[in-house]
Structures are given as structure tokens and as C-alpha cells.
Amino acid sequence: MQVSTSHEKWSSRLTFIMAAVGSSVGLGNVWKFPYEAGVSGGGAFVLIYIACILVVGLPILIAELTLGKQGQMSPPNTMRTLAQREGRSSLWQSVGWLGVLAAFMILSFYSVIGGWALAYVPKFISGDLITTNPDVVTTEFNTLLASPAQMLAWHGLFMVLTIFVVARGIHAGIEKAVDILMPALFFILLALVIYAAIAGDFGRAWSFLFAADFSKITPDVVLNALGQAFFSISVGLGAMMTYGAYLPKDVKIPRAATIIVFADTMVALLAGLAIFPIVFANGLDPASGPGLVFVTLPLAFAGVPLGGFFGTMFFVLIVFAAITSSISLLEPVVSWAEEHKGVKRSLSAIVAGFLIWLLGLLSVFSFNLWGDVHLLGMFERFETATLFDLMDFTTSNIFLPLGGMAMVIFASWIMSRETTETDLGLSPALYKSWLFLARFVAPIALLMIFAYNIFG
Ligand code: PHE
Prior knowledge:
The protein is mainly α. Helices cover 77% and strands 0% of the residues. It has 18 helices and no strands.
């Protein structure tokens, strides 16, 4: 039933890189990374995180982009075509399906957090959040979480923005959005870091992030860092495979992938350097968890000059980062739908987006009406896990690593060496290093995550 294999292609290498960096730079960098680093003791986590990115993340990203570039279709059809070409079982298609499912689930809760960030922009502009009274800020955040109607509206608005971009296609939608949002994002981030260096305690933030205290490294820290690395560079679910499918033949993947992981890591570190100096300058706790950005940070901004303005900019930054990622989560689904005769992109973006929004209700209600629903409460580990927590856990800790493992195994063991060797265009030594990391190191690291997740 599939007919069209001719998706639009990126207009240039630069737009591809901006879109892929846009996909990887998101809530993972500006919300999750700083708080994960905060609760895991700073420097130790950062060091392990960077090691995970280089040793596991980069080889898998190269593998995933290569699969996309070779297959030129949505993840299920790319995997089917490539398996056929290598004379393998069409069951490989399920890797693509797992990816589409993961994208669906991740976007359903990603858009809820994106909605919080959207809600914070007017709250900052109006001055409601600019107070050094912790009770006021905590109440403000809790009131948002307690109100299904408010959360639904913001989550809905976030999905509408995402659908709008994706519905317009690669050139008129995604490229246009990243052309504007990505430069703006970098500019705002740099301004925030400079501001934090002037107004905050930069020295303390620096040593917090970069002075590694090895006694803080536990198996948990390693595994969190690995999971975070996966999520942050968007690998394992086919978002990058889909972006890779739109690549013109002459773009060399290894260099592009290196730029992507470098930019992603820089943004995560810079976000830390924008947040922690003012958190420390106000004597606040860096280890406050998911509330770091939504509760601790507003308090910190209120304590420094021009905090209202820079606080607003910070939440605009989060929104931009989140939208350039959410479009890459909707794109695999829409790209698959588009491969069917007579299916229009705009309609499939709206339908898929609506279904995702609907699934997002599970996450919205996890913070209020269904806060006490613990589906897996009989297991000690999930005793207090809400539906939101379960979706986050299943996707980040199971689906992404599983998808990443299948993709890296396919690219390094199953695809013919001639294909990858020519396509990657690396020197023999570099090619061998990639092959070694992709064949052995990455799969073994992933097996360790699974073993730990199941038995740990
Ligand atoms: N990488 C994005 C972030 O850091 C999230 C994401 C994951 C986007 C997987 C696409 C695919 O926020």
C-alpha cells in the first residue's frame, strides 16, 4: 500500500544540522540535565554523562542517521526496506514501530512539561512569579499542577504549535521554524550565561559542575547518566532516523553527528552555567529535583537585578528548545502516514497531534485527579509512580535503549560493510573505531542498563 518514497529533502547541510540540533536540544538539556546533575552531585555526573555521550551516544547516533539516509523513509518503512535489501526478516520493521510508539508516548508527556514552560512566560511577564517568598512560588507551581483545566489548555497550546509547524512540511514548516528558533535560542542562552556570571556566583557553579567528586559515583548515577544521554541526543526512537531520511546523498554523517552531540552537550552545560550561579548566589538548594527550574529558579531570579526580564527570557528559551524537539517527535508519525496514497500531511499532523494530546491527559491527570493512581503499586519500585512516571520510565529506560540497541546492531552487524564504509566516508582507523564501539561497546553498555533495570 506504500507508494510515495519521495519525501522533501533538507535544503542544505546547515538546515539539517540546525533541525537535528533542534531535536536534541530540548527539555532534556535545560530542565532535566541541570536537575539530574544537581541531585547526583554535580561534577561526577557531568563527567560520566560526557563519557556516555562519546562512547555510546555518538556511535548510535551515527548508526541511526545512516539507517535513515539509506532507507529514506519513515522508521517502519526504512527498517523494512533495509532488512529486505540485506535479505533479513521483515520483523526488523518492528524496530521502526517501537520507535513510532515511543515518539507517540514521549510527545504525550513532553508536551505537558512544554505546557508548563509556556504557562510560565505570562506568569513572569505579569510579575506574579517574581518574589523571593518561597511559599508564593511553590503555591503558584502547585496551583498550576492542581488544575486539570489550566494544564490541559497549556498542553493543548503546545501541541497546536507543534502541529502547525509539522503540518507545513519540511521546507515551509520545520526548516523555517529552526531557522528562527535555533539562532534565537543560542543568543538567549549566551546572554543568560553572561548575566549569570555577572549577577550570580559563577565560581561556585563552575566547581559544582566540573569538580568531580568520585565518591559520588554509584551505579545509579552511571545509569541515569546513560539514560539521560540517550534522551538528550534523541536517539533510539527513529526521530533522528526520520531526519536522516531527508538527507541529500552528499552529506557525511559522522561529522554532522559530532556537531550535533557537541552542540547538545554545550547547551546542557551552558544551561547549568546559567542556572546554578544564581541559585548559589541566593543560597538555594541545587538538588531540588524536577522543581529546580520551576520553583527554585524563579526564586533565584527574584533575588537578582533585572531578574524579571532574564527569568522571562529563560522560559522563552525553554519553550523554543522544547518546540524544536517536539516537532521531531511528531515527524516520524506523520512521515509514516504520508507514505500512504492520498494521505495529506496536514491532516495526518492534526489527527496524530490530537491523539497524542489525548494520550497526554494521562500525564495531566497524574498531577491532580489521578495523583493517587499507582498502576504498578504492587511493585516496591513503582509504589508511588504515577501514570506520568510510568510513561517516562518505559520510554526512556526501556524503549529508547531497546530501539538504540537494535539500530546499532543492524547498522554494524547486518548492513554490509561496503555500504557503511562508503556511506560514512571515514578514514580506515576511524571507521574501525566506530565499528568497534557500535558492535561491542554500545550493545554491552545497553545490556547493562537492562540488567540493572530488571534486577537492580
Ligand atoms: N532530545 C530531546 C530533549 O533533550 C527530547 C527528544 C527525545 C526529542 C527523543 C526527540 C526524540 O529534550
